């Protein structure tokens, strides 16, 4: 595309030439590969998993959830949504990628570009594209430090647009409206860790509780074990919830 895009939704139809050889194509998002398109008969290349996966991911999921491709030579439809650094893909109305981080293929030490072009890619044989629609989505402005904060030596661990400086449960912890939100898939959210380790520090952050929430901030905690016990936990708790009516003094919020 001539224009660059940040957060967006798009539709695109695609069709692989049934007479082609080693059909392989894809949709680059923000100038980065790619939402995969290929002939599922190419078992030697791993294509039997189907199209729609984030093929070039190394840490986060690279394969589609399910096989949803139509027969070779038939038209397929992608719905692709990109918000912050995460991608959702539906292939022929079937969810194949669910809010997965797209990694920066060009420099894996950095997060995905905040804005870049959408690209249609092909190699191996012909691929046909049609009915391409895109809708831009409003996105939060990245958080920036003030001049005084920079002077005092602060650094940003989360700017509201990506979680590149974090590791751990990257499935249930998500960027949403400029925040890190937790949607525990098994009733227990697990832990999110900074990639870097810290000794003595000043840490500033904002948080918002939901009713009955029980969270915490682990300090100097190792990557293994329960962060609340292996390290030190500062409790983040809805004290007023009926379920916490018998708390000990040391268990209250803060």
TrEMBL record:
Lineage: unclassified sequences, metagenomes, organismal metagenomes
Identification of the protein by name: 3-keto-alpha-glucoside-1,2-lyase/3-keto-2-hydroxy-glucal hydratase domain-containing protein
Pfam families: 3keto-disac_hyd
GO molecular-function terms, A-Z: hydrolase activity
UniProt domain 3-keto-alpha-glucoside-1,2-lyase/3-keto-2-hydroxy-glucal hydratase: residue ranges: 3-135, 154-242
């Amino acid at each position: 595309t001539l224009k660059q895009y940040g957060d967006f939704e798009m539709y695109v139809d695609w069709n692989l030439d049934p007479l082609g050889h080693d059909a392989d194509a894809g949709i680059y998002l923000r100038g980065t590969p790619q939402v995969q398109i290929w002939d599922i008969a190419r078992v030697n290349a791993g294509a039997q998993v189907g199209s729609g996966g984030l093929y070039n991911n190394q840490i986060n999921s690279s394969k589609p959830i399910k096989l949803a491709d139509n027969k070779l030579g038939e038209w397929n439809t992608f719905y692709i949504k990109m918000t912050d650094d995460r991608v959702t893909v539906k292939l022929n109305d079937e969810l194949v990628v669910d809010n997965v981080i797209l990694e920066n293929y060009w420099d894996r030490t950095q997060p995905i570009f905040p804005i870049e072009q959408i690209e249609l890619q092909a190699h191996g044989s012909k691929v046909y594209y049609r009915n391409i629609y895109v809708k831009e989505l409003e996105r939060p402005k990245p958080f920036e430090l003030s001049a005084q904060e920079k002077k005092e030596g602060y650094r940003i661990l989360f700017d509201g647009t990506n979680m590149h400086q974090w590791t751990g449960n990257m499935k249930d912890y998500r960027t949403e409206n400029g925040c890190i939100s937790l949607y525990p898939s098994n009733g227990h959210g697990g832990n999110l860790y900074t990639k870097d380790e810290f000794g003595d520090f000043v840490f500033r952050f904002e948080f918002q509780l939901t009713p009955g929430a029980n969270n915490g901030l682990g300090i100097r905690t190792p990557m293994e074990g329960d962060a609340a016990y292996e390290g030190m936990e500062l409790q983040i708790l809805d004290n007023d919830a009926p379920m916490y009516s018998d708390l000990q003094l040391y268990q209250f919020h803060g």
